[in-house]
Amino acid sequence: MKVSNEFVEVKIGNRKFTRKNMILNTFLKKIFDSQIYNSTFAPYIGSCYLKLNEPLNNVDYDSILQPSDFDISLAGTGKCDKIVAKNSIKTIYKFDNSNYSYNGNTYQGKNLDMFDGQKITAIGFGQRLVGILAFIDTSNMNIIINSKENFEVTRVDNFQSDGVCNDFDYPLHLVNNIVRYEGKFTGLAIEEHTEAQLYSVGFGNVEGLMEEEYLIEDVEIDRDDYSITFNIPRTQKNGAYPSENLRLGFYPIKDNSKYLIFKYRLYRKSQNVLTGVIQDITYLDQYYTMSKPNTDFGDLNIKLKIERG
């Protein structure tokens, strides 16, 4: 599984500034946690944060940044557009100055008069409950706010799996809470949507069809912030098929399974979007799989991990 930023574009009037951002380890950890644990507050990018005039120095992948490290918070729409395929999702976010916060106050109406002529030295993406997930140092890009011009930030990310998805349109587990699949509000600040959790691992001869299945808890041997490892012994077997010299009592035997398959279970999560407190989790009798070719046999240690693309 890989996560990458395709680009971030800042548009001020007719001027455009484009750069890729740094995906922080916090983002990778939270994406991975969200497909293993149903109780985690899955990450999503709800706001774009701007730092003015003074740069944020010494930021690296391990940095823990908070919205308070920035000056302006641009509110997003609460959702993102997406382009999906059987092994990937492209997410598209847009932010502008129609609704922003500064010094604890909220402003509306596309007016940045108080920041006219100030320089944007850094941009962060994230949300109050999850912190900053991605970062760009723009201190050398000469991005100057002109309050008389329209202001817009566009962000495009790519989420990629090595496997092919069956029984669902795309690998939902990579974007739990990000795309808010079948999301709806059921009460004041209470939102419900569907997420996916890793359920089992196994093998099969056909994409999406598991012939050998092992529950995660039965074969897991190791786990860290970015990966989970399973141990499954595999003995190679050669198939026997009908020929011109058929014998009475002959039964065809298949080759060993050709695919390594991961199965994910869908569930509905209800939580308070202001506090992150989970109200309810209801598992559904619905699953999908991710399949990739398997050519290895023996005492297998299978690692499922997330990394930058």
Summarize the structure in words.
5% of the residues lie in helices and 50% in strands. A hairpin with a 2-residue loop joins strand 1 (2-12) and strand 2 (15-19). The protein is elongated and about 70 Å long. The model has no long low-confidence stretch (mean pLDDT 91). It has a seven-stranded antiparallel sheet with strand order 3-11-10-4-5-8-9. Strands 1, 2, 6, 7, 12 and 22 form a six-stranded mixed sheet that branches. Strands 13, 14, 15, 16, 19 and 20 form a six-stranded antiparallel sheet that branches. With 309 residues, the protein is mainly beta. The chain folds into two domains: 2-160, no CATH class; 164-308, no CATH class.
SSE diagram, text form:
Layout: E1 2-12, E2 15-19, E3 22-23, H1 25-36, E4 47-52, E5 72-75, E6 81-85, E7 88-96, E8 99-102, E9 105-108, E10 120-127, E11 131-137, E12 151-160, E13 164-166, E14 181-187, E15 190-204, E16 212-215, H2 216-219, E17 220-223, E18 227-234, E19 259-272, E20 278-293, E21 298-305, E22 307-308
